[in-house]
Amino acid sequence: MRRMIFVGGMVVSLLTACSPYGMQGNPAAVQAGAAIGGVLGAIVGDRAGGYNGSQFGALLGTVAGAAVGNAVTTPREETYPADEYYVETSPSSSRYENTPSYAPSSGLRIVNLRFIDDNRNHVIDAEEDSKLVFDLVNDGDVPAYNVTPVIEEMNGMKHLLISPSAQIAYMPAGNQIRYTATIRGGRKLKTGQAQFRVFATESNGAVTEAHEFTLPTQKRIKK
Fold it and tell me: Are 30 and 20 contacting, i.e. CB atoms less than 8 angstroms apart?
């Protein structure tokens, strides 16, 4: 009887620890974890206490395995510094504006564009590294493949380096991915305004809505 109470308590604890809303991770991973945990639990329980021990072990192992699978695959909410600079963007057409009208429309959206520079003055300074962070959201009904975020500087600003695009191989429907690009102000960067355009393409030719915004640049101050 004590063993049953103990096992029941552990089962409740494991289920409660998963999430306040129950199992939130990938269902396949949760099921796989439960299956593996059940088998291992049965083996251990059988060695420890015969048939009844096997049953208890299988039950405990199943729940524990499911909890592990859930923990591994549940999305984690990321936090960011309070001094992030959310850039104000305006919709624009991308350089792919002449795409034929029969081209597929994209279910992707780009939201929450943020600029984070080293000294937090919201300016791209010469010899300074900064980051452009935004979220890619798949609001469509189908997966998106080979998603390529594109960041362009439209004013021809010299000595401004943007990290190469990193392709996202697969984005299922309903998925959201945080993308980070690095912007480097070169030593000879001049004071002015950099005009950026951000959009994303897919392997089927679909293109997201583009967003434009400006950021000031500052030349190197000699000391």
Answer: no
**Coil vs helix vs strand at 73:** helix
Among 192, 190, 188, 183, CA closest to 214? 192
The position carrying tokens 């999305």 is 75
**pTM given for the model:** 0.60
Which residues are bridge partners to 201 per DSSP?
148, 207
What does each of the 223 residues of the chain score in pLDDT, given as a tens digit?
544 444 444 443 444 444 443 444 445 444 545 455 554 455 545 555 554 555 555 554 554 554 544 444 444 444 555 556 788 887 765 555 545 555 678 899 999 999 999 999 999 999 999 999 999 999 999 999 999 999 999 999 999 999 999 999 999 999 999 999 999 999 999 999 999 999 999 999 999 999 999 999 999 988 6
Measured distance CA(120)–CA(112) in Å, rounded: 18
What's the longest Cα–Cα distance across the chain?
80
